[in-house]
Amino acid sequence: MVSIAFGRQCVGFKPIKIIGLSTTLLLAVFSMQLFAAPEVIASGLFKDKALLTIDGKPRLLKVGTSSPEGVTLLRSDSQQANILIEGRTLTLHLTERISTAFKKPKFSEVKIPRSPNGHYFTSGSINGRSAKFMVDTGATAIAMNINEASRLGIDLRKAKAGMSSTAGGMVKTFRVMLDKVSVGNVTLHSIPASVVDGDFPEQILLGNSFLSKVEMTEQAGVLVFRKKY
């Protein structure tokens, strides 16, 4: 039985001397090759697999598999593919080319100011569709009402039904798995959620199935989420 609390406030490197210009140029070229990120082209897109050309080499990847160059296919259909490379999730459309020559950040971060009523509200997305959240550390999982679930295209036909304890009593719920949840530039995959058979909670609760996977701090009325790559 999942417990959901609606509206609960939470809250040794030694320097060496390089002699000669030719040697310096050689080291510079070597460094560029060593740290250059691959170039990726979507050559063919299919359901749950994609043909990617990575640095000129064709790689047929299935969802969840990675290429020798470190490119992981997260999701794919005939329209687009989501890939994970150097800690970033990127979207590729057919024949689109992405050059990922960027410096890999150490972490992604989002800041959420506290509202006048003391709660933290933020916009984001669930499975690629826009969503508005209220941060609630008292909620076991992300929680939403059945109307929001319908708007987000969440299929409840195969969801596991149960009962949950809320501030208003026992309610029927459905346990689902969200493919992707994003708040700012913090994105997590495969996040458990609870759908309540009713009109409450009015706001989607960003509960601990998401919050437990990020570093969360509060500084002068600003809530900070940080996720390491």
Characterise the protein shown here.
The chain has 229 residues and is mainly beta. The protein has two domains: 36-99; 107-228, Cathepsin D, subunit A, domain 1 (Beta Barrel), CATH 2.40.70.10. 11% of the residues lie in helices and 49% in strands. It contains three helices and 17 strands. It has helices spanning 21-35, 146-151, 208-211; strands at residues 39-46, 49-54, 57-62, 72-76, 80-85, 88-93, 97-99, 107-113, 121-126, 129-135, 142-145, 160-166, 169-183, 186-196, 204-206, 215-219, 222-228. Strand 12 and strand 13 (169-183) form a beta hairpin. Mean pLDDT is 82; it is low at 7-35.
Summary, kept brief:
The chain has 229 residues and is mainly β.
List the helices and strands and how they pair.
Layout: H1 21-35, E1 39-46, E2 49-54, E3 57-62, E4 72-76, E5 80-85, E6 88-93, E7 97-99, E8 107-113, E9 121-126, E10 129-135, E11 142-145, H2 146-151, E12 160-166, E13 169-183, E14 186-196, E15 204-206, H3 208-211, E16 215-219, E17 222-228
Parallel strand pairs: 10-15, 11-14
Antiparallel strand pairs: 1-2, 1-7, 2-3, 4-5, 5-6, 8-17, 9-10, 9-13, 12-13, 13-14, 16-17
Tags for this model:
single chain; 229 residues; mainly beta; Cathepsin D, subunit A, domain 1; 2 domains; 7-stranded mixed β-sheet; 4-stranded antiparallel β-sheet; 17 strands; globular
